[in-house]
Design a protein that fits this description.
Radius of gyration: 14 Å
Number of strands: 3
Low-confidence stretches: none
Distance between the termini: 28 Å
Order of helices and strands: HEHEHEH
Strand order of the largest sheet: 1-2-3
Length: 100
């Protein structure tokens, strides 16, 4: 058994961050996935959700990778209203996802 297997079986240990992503970076995401990244990390504070999801949709629709083969991690800062479930559901809807 490897350290990676013992530490976190079934989940990739390294993610592909999107904080510097812009509309012209589709090839960067595609290259990351070609290199073996299976976790894409998106931060709400970076404001790149729509651009990243557009790029991923192109890859999904083109058959480059299936949604079920990719972990999409999303970091967001909750406001003081305490309604975290609604915030998460709203963000999933805005990003066109069923799950993170």
């Amino acid at each position: 058994m490897t350290f990676a297997d013992a530490f976190n079986p079934g989940c990739p240990l390294i993610s592909f961050g999107t904080s510097l992503y812009d509309e012209s970076s589709l090839n960067d995401i595609k290259f990351g996935i070609q290199c073996g990244f299976r976790v894409v990390h998106i931060r709400h504070e970076d404001g790149v959700e729509k651009s990243v999801m557009n790029a991923l949709d192109i890859l999904f629709q083109g058959g480059f990778i299936k949604r079920c083969e990719l972990f999409i991690c999303y970091s967001m800062t909750f406001t003081g209203n305490g309604n975290h479930i609604n915030s998460i559901q709203s963000q999933l809807s805005e990003m066109g996802l069923d799950y993170f």
